[in-house]
């Protein structure tokens, strides 16, 4: 599952992908549908560190806060203090995975699984 979250209890968008797909191209498809007019930061891990993903984030109006791989030839700067807040997004995933049906994925059909994830997000927002 790929998720764009605005805060610890609010998801902007999400979608499912095949398990053998790389994260970065899937995320570029997801973020292409979201536009930020206020230069909100995107807190991402190193899986999203490539130049195409960074360019997609900047083109959508976001600020990319992703740590660089050690072997990056042409490094760019990122806000290390802002990146420390990425654990808040990981907390959002932890709250979703409290539902056994989410972390084990019993459902064979994607539409049923997406419906339950949406339900878990709504229930999580109500209970928080």
Write the layout of secondary structure elements.
Blueprint: E1 2-7, E2 10-15, H1 23-31, E3 41-43, H2 51-59, E4 63-65, H3 80-83, H4 86-96, H5 100-104, H6 110-127
Parallel strand pairs: 3-4
Antiparallel strand pairs: 1-2
Protein architecture, described:
- This protein has 128 residues and is α+β, with helices and mostly antiparallel strands.
- The chain contains 6 helices and 4 strands.
- A two-stranded antiparallel ribbon has the order 1-2. It has a two-stranded parallel sheet with strand order 3-4.
- β3 (41-43), α2 and β4 form a beta-alpha-beta unit.
- α1 (23-31) packs parallel to α2.
- The mean pLDDT is 78.
Largest sheet: 2 strands, antiparallel
Report how far the terminal alpha carbons are from each other.
Answer: 22 Å
Give a count of the beta strands, DSSP E runs of length 2 or more: 4
Task: Assess the beta-strand content as a share of residues.
Answer: 5-15%
Q: Low-confidence segments, ≥5 residues, pLDDT <50?
A: none
Instruction: Give the ordered list of helices and strands.
Output: EEHEHEHHHH
Number of helices: 6
- Strand numbers in spatial order across the main sheet: 1-2
Helix fraction, binned, reads: 40-55%
Classification by helices and strands? alpha+beta
Give me the Rg, rounded: 15 Å
In round numbers, the mean pLDDT is 78
Overall morphology:
globular
């Amino acid at each position: 599952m790929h998720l764009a979250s605005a805060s610890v209890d609010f998801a902007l968008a999400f979608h499912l992908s095949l398990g053998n797909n790389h994260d970065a191209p899937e995320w570029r498809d997801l973020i292409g549908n979201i536009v930020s007019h206020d230069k909100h930061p995107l807190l991402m891990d190193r899986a999203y560190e490539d130049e195409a993903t960074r360019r997609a984030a900047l083109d959508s109006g976001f600020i990319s806060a992703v740590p660089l791989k050690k072997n990056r030839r042409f490094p760019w700067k990122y806000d290390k203090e802002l990146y420390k807040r990425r654990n808040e997004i990981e907390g959002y995933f932890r709250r979703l995975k409290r539902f056994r049906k989410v972390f084990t994925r019993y459902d064979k059909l994607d539409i049923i699984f997406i419906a339950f994830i949406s339900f878990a997000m709504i229930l999580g927002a109500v209970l928080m």
